[in-house]
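Before relying on records like the one below, remember that each one covers exactly one chain. Contacts with other chains, cofactors or solvent are not represented anywhere in the record.
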Amino acid sequence: MRRWLIWIGVAVSIALLFLALRGIHFDEFVLALQQANPLWLLPGIGFYFLAVAVRAWRWSYLLQPLKPVGAGRLFPIVVIGYMGNNIYPARIGELLRAYVLRRDEGVPIASSLATVLIERMMDGIVMIGFALIGLQSAPNVSARAGQVIAIAIVLFAIASAAFFWMALAPARTKRLAEAAITRLVPHRFQAPLLGVAHRFVQGAQSLRSPRDLAAIFLGTVVVWLLETLKYGSVARAFDLALPFGGLMLVNGLSNLFTVIPGAPGAVGTFDAGGMLAMRALGVDESLAAAYVLTLHVVLWLPVTLLGAFFMLREGLRWSDLRRAEEAAV
């Protein structure tokens, strides 16, 4: 991976973290952390891992046209993927879980990555819905914040619509990909790229079944409702009485902002989105910062530790992160 891409991501994260934390009073921030009740973090962690379990179930649906794999088998692979995203740049965790799935189940990486992309698009659509619902609970949405939110939602909606159009029209997508590759790509690269395009279309076949599409969408809604309960549990630790719609807004914006390329673990990107939502809800800056940063730690630490455990149990090494990237290439 090119180092300059990594440093650009780090610079983006630092800039967004600065914007997120500007205006807070350090002594008030520390006091809010000291007064928080850590016991409320435990149910939040529980809700988070329930959401991960539903994610594993959802992935099993997406993989059915390729190979039936049980949700119980996929759970540790999903956790390993989150661990990879948290410690390595460029969301290499997505490649890592596709790599592990190919190693253990023989599913081609390009096909499994197509299912991962479907997951992300589904997540994005639900997050857009959560953000729009949550805006009804936000009394302090400035014109500039509203413009940022609107632009982010429109861009992701366009990208999602384009992707699902391709996935739901596999024959047309295949023809367009073949035409573009044969016309624009040097001859020696055409065969491998055509193979990737074909496996991508194969990986998107689960969207052709209305029943499976409905199950995947409903599973995604359940995932993010569980995540919202986690946000609410951490809010109780700080004695924050946020309405459920407000929690949906924080959840939606903090996760939509992680689409922005940044440092590993969504440092800065997650926090900027979360703080934007908290300001819109009228929460005190220092208290909001204590809440959002604690929420980020609760998201990052448990799944990273469990992912490292599963990684060792699966016989993976840190060098497999590099192999996953090379295999994808």
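The first helix runs from residue 3 to 21.
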